[in-house]
Amino acid sequence: MRAALVGVDFGKGDFAASLDELSQLALSAGAETITSIACKRSSPDAALFIGSGKADEISHAVIDLNLDLVIFNHALSPAQQRNLERHLKIRVVDRTSLILDIFAQRAKSHEGKVQVELAQLQHLATRLVRGWTHLERQKGGIGLRGPGETQLETDRRLLGERVKMLKAKMEKLHKQRETQRRSRGRSNTFTVSLVGYTNAGKSTLFNTLTKAGTYAANQLFATLDTTSRRLYLEGAGNIVVSDTVGFIRDLPHQLVASFRATLEETIHADLLLHVVDGGSAVRNDQIEQVNHVLKEIGADHIPQLLVWNKIDQADLLPAIERDEYGKINRVFVSAKNGQGIDLLRDAIVELMQKTQVSSELSAEIGAELLSEE
């Protein structure tokens, strides 16, 4: 599909990097970027998001370049999307819909598919309520409609029933995961979750650490389904390592909510390995975005180790960095060629031993307090 990318610079963050990320997202979704159109505004236009002059410029580009699609690097309201499609006479996709589409293509497991469909339907529901008013006028419907229902009411009801059914499925899957986690908890298995910005190299690191064969590719959202593997570490015994979905700037709320079940592996971990693309110019912003999502899902209290990945691309050497108190700050590795992986294993063992000592101390203090009472 031949697409134009549209970005509006509101003077926040690294605009060029966010437009580059949109280009990668479009490629991941299967679109070919033919042109990029950018403009500056202090605030979005209520009707078209961009000004009418810029909308005309895009309209000419659509005709001249024979485009199939226009992708906006922002979340559009249903009215803005509808107005733009009328003006441009072509399909318009916003950032939220684009990410949802990639997730729909990538979901492999039953759980992943249920989560994505739920997120898509919840996103569509906002379009139904405010964006499909033209359907109100349609009467009569074969086989589906209740007495006196308009098309929009029927669509809304059917969509509501499907959402309810998917939520029930999610609840069942959530209970299954809870049971698996409880059995792991009873055996006192130390759990580690890999988190990080999408395409930071989590799956490659997961494969290198555990010798697993999970899908890893140089593209956004290569991993959607949480994969867990046992890993034996010298001096620590068996631990469980989980690879999770990557985070991204402005991750749609529907996705965060729907993927809560998958991300619960993160919430219940003993340690988070926060994988960072050491070669990215916007890595600090990406670290911030990941921490924002972790806070959103209630995982910001879990001990975190920064893993500076792709050191081969950033001309850095494998190392363990410590603060002035001797506490490990960062580990520098290359998951691709295995540099620094032994250091990372050592760091996990050290942090694991410290966690166990502090939890034993907490248990002893608690027992003493109870005996005093």
Automatic annotation (TrEMBL):
Q: What is this protein called?
A: GTPase HflX
Q: What does the subunit comment say? A: Monomer. Associates with the 50S ribosomal subunit.
Provide this UniProt record's keywords sorted from A to Z: Coiled coil, Cytoplasm, GTP-binding, Magnesium, Metal-binding, Nucleotide-binding
Q: Which NCBIfam families does the record match to this protein?
A: GTP_HflX (TIGR03156), PRK11058.1 (NF008280)
Q: Which residues form the Hflx-type G domain?
A: 190-356
Which residue stretches, if any, does this entry annotate as coiled coil?
A: 156-183
Lineage, opening ranks: Bacteria, Pseudomonadati, Pseudomonadota, Betaproteobacteria, Burkholderiales
Q: Which domain of life is it from?
A: Bacteria
Q: Which PANTHER family match?
A: GTP-BINDING PROTEIN 6-RELATED (PTHR10229:SF0), GTP-BINDING PROTEIN HFLX (PTHR10229)
What is the role of the protein in this entry?
A: GTPase that associates with the 50S ribosomal subunit and may have a role during protein synthesis or ribosome biogenesis.
Q: Which InterPro entries match?
A: G_HFLX_dom, GTP-bd, GTP-bd_M, GTPase_HflX, GTPase_HflX_N, GTPase_HflX_N_sf, P-loop_NTPase
